[in-house]
Design a protein that fits this description.
heterodimer, A: 386 residues, alpha/beta, Peroxisomal Thiolase, Chain A, domain 1, 9-stranded mixed sheet, B: mainly beta, 3-stranded antiparallel sheet, globular
Chain lengths: 386, 134
């Protein structure tokens, strides 16, 4: 519990749904209240706020709320805040908060991610969709060819894996099947029904090899994690979960010039920052905006060799709740909803505290990995209950 | 495509790439000091950090490194399916272009297929698309 350590001490989540009527700030406040109640902290003890990617005026559905608005709306007295998109993926905001408390700049930091993509589609006059008539920056290298979605970009990584290593659609399907099966046991998950292999195989294609069930769907929700300094745990009533290591490395920052996603560089580097090893990990929460991404994390973090991710998933037994490496125990984004990375860390904390209810991984798990991001974006957190 | 392609905003760095098709040329930024290629084009070599970089015309042939057949109409009126591919350019090590493979059925495309550039002009932008056979 020494100074220099950072802990997740509170978790909160709003209602998770599609086309919710509650405002994005309202959802954010709901999640903040729950996280504060969970941690035992009060509003006046929060002295830092961080988010990914910050308010995006051109794309409000993707990110409607910034740190400035939340600080002002709740009358917080902060010593430190930061929000931005040029982070090591979504959970990079949590890593930033951890660095801030380790450096003594803050003691209790609210980290939030609010998504409003489904509601925004339903209310375009309030939340206009992103316009793509003219593009610059990185978008100019993909959008002119109607490679408009991360589904298209990620699908090409998946095709390469299939051609080079023999990944099959049946193996890929296990990510969605596992996510749906676990979501059914998670009362807050978006998905309420199991998915069969037949249903998966019959689904319409989005961008080969990804079918409908390989892609997360627009969700309205806010997720909050409170990160506290190691010497401030006396303020906290919850079971703290230590951030034992963090990484967010890239070999080539590009969606289309890199051969493989940043998960490989980040996975490699996570173990440079800790004495834990993959064999010590009891469960994993791997970002699954698209079903292929957990394969990159399995391989990148060394749970299997490069090219072996598909075979690791074969049959789905290893990643099931009672398997050797339970994965996406709350449903992941394919099952629980597109909470955009923050849901992975939220669920890891639930599990490490033993609060998973019907989906609790047996054996009192102590160590978990939570990741976020795809393509060049990658953030990994190693979480431990001491 | 029956809907306009999103238009790249031209600047000093990308102008040669997006307009070279007017002369039938595919320009990639190359370093006079180390010979390395830099893409996306920037005014500094990403290999040796020299600023003696300039666009040079490359062969415009290559091989499909990976691809996806897109079925989702992301924009109203976007005809589907179509092929999005990443092409590895011949003799331009380390540079890949995201593009469309045109002039063949979508299921006739595979990794490793040889392709050559075919420009499509729209409002002064020359989009480098690729077709099979090179």
């Amino acid at each position: 519990m020494a100074r220099g350590e950072a802990y997740i001490t509170g978790i909160g989540m709003s209602e998770v749904g599609v086309r919710l009527a509650r405002s994005p700030l309202g959802l954010t406040v709901d999640a903040v209240r729950e996280a504060l109640a969970d941690s035992g902290l009060g509003f006046d003890q929060i002295d830092g706020v961080t988010t990914y990617p910050g308010r995006m005026p051109t794309f409000l559905g993707f990110s409607p709320i910034g740190t400035d608005e939340l600080i002002d709306a709740l009358g917080l007295k902060t010593h430190w805040h930061a929000g931005g998109g040029e982070l090591t993926a979504q959970l990079g905001a949590v890593a930033m908060a951890a660095a801030a408390v380790q450096a003594g700049q803050a003691r209790h930091v609210l980290c939030f991610r609010t998504v409003y993509e489904a509601a925004a589609l339903a209310r375009p006059e309030e939340f206009p969709p992103l316009r793509r008539k003219e593009v610059d920056g990185a978008s100019q290298w993909t959008a002119p060819f109607f490679a408009l979605s991360a589904a298209n970009w990620t699908a090409q990584f998946a095709t390469r894996h299939m051609k080079r290593y023999g990944l099959t659609r049946e193996q890929l399907a296990q990510v969605a099947l596992n996510g749906h099966a676990n979501a059914v046991r998670n009362p807050r998950a978006l998905v309420k029904k199991k998915l069969t292999m037949d249903e998966y195989m019959a689904a319409r294609m989005i961008s080969t090899p990804f079918c409908l069930y390989d892609c997360d769907r627009f969700t309205d929700a806010a997720t909050v994690l409170i990160v506290s300094a190691g010497d401030a745990l006396g303020d906290v009533a919850s079971v703290p979960v230590r951030i034992a290591a963090m990484a967010g490395s890239v070999d080539r920052y590009s969606w289309d010039q890199a051969e493989w996603a940043g998960a490989y560089a980040t996975g490699r580097d996570l173990w440079r920052n800790t004495d834990y090893r993959p064999a010590d990990v009891d469960l994993v929460q791997f970002y699954d905006g698209f079903a292929f991404q957990p394969i990159t994390w399995l391989e990148g973090l060394g749970f299997c060799d490069l090219g072996e991710g598909g075979r690791f998933l074969e049959g789905g037994h290893r990643i099931a709740l009672d398997g050797e490496l339970p994965m996406n125990t709350g449903g992941g984004q394919l099952g629980a909803g597109r909470l955009h990375g923050f849901g992975m860390a939220h669920e890891a904390v639930v599990q490490l505290r033993g609060q998973g209810g019907d989906r609790q991984v047996p054996g009192s798990p102590r160590v978990a990995v939570a990741t976020s991001g795809g393509g060049p974006m990658a953030a990994a957190l190693l979480l431990a209950r001491d | 495509m029956s809907v306009p392609r999103p238009r790249p905003k031209l600047d000093a760095d990308n102008r040669a790439f997006w307009t070279g098709g007017a002369q039938g040329r595919l320009y990639i930024t190359c370093c006079a000091d180390c010979g390395g290629y830099t893409h996306p084009p920037r005014p500094v070599c990403r290999h040796c950090r020299s600023e003696a970089v300039a666009p040079v015309a490359v062969a415009g042939t290559g091989a499909i490194d990976s691809y996806t057949i897109n079925h989702q109409p992301w924009m109203p009126g976007l005809p589907v399916p179509f092929v999005i591919a990443r092409v590895a350019l011949d003799a331009v090590p380390g540079v890949f272009l995201t593009t469309n493979i045109v002039g063949c059925p979508v299921d006739a495309v595979d990794v490793g297929d040889r392709v050559r550039v075919r420009f499509e002009e729209q409002d002064g932008i020359w989009f480098p698309l690729f077709e099979k056979g090179a």
